[in-house]
């Protein structure tokens, strides 16, 4: 994602969008350093300046690092309200539901992520859906999902490992 994504989203002045972008970048830097409270504060300031689906999604991601899965899910729902075509929050809700051992509830979120028109990493929901099917003992469906993830991204190491692990387990 770059400044252009922020500049085309929603109404607001160009300056507000640029300020929101700068706050978003600062938030991400704090998040990557493990400074989660600072990241939350910066994401919230970015959203207040100019709300974007990305800022809500990344705020949710930060909450997930803090173990606040319900808050993370809420932020993803806000992201979807801002931009229903953005795939990340659908996938992220599914991941958070997996973390809450709510496997069946996660499935439709991954399916929605797969249908999203704007998603830089479309292989992710296929891998995650495979994880659900694997946990449920539905091996064939899991293998199919892992293969689809690899078809979308042949270099996706997690999908390669998951597929290899599952196939070797079944042999």
What does this structure look like?
This protein is an all-alpha fold and 171 residues long. It contains ten helices and no strands. It has helices at residues 3-8, 14-32, 36-49, 53-65, 69-82, 88-99, 103-115, 123-135, 139-152, 157-170. Helix 3 packs antiparallel against helix 4 (53-65) and helix 7 (103-115) packs antiparallel against helix 8. The longest helix has 19 residues, at 14-32. The termini are far apart. The model has no long low-confidence stretch (mean pLDDT 93).
The N- and C-terminal alpha carbons lie at a distance of 42 Å
Structural class: mainly alpha
Would you tell me the overall average pLDDT? 93
Q: How much helicity do the residues have?
A: over 70%
Order of helices and strands: HHHHHHHHHH
- Strand fraction band? under 5%
Can you count the beta strands? Answer: 0
Number of helices: 10
Instruction: Tell me, briefly, the overall form.
Output: elongated
Query: Which ranges are low-confidence, i.e. pLDDT below 50, for 5 or more consecutive residues?
Result: none
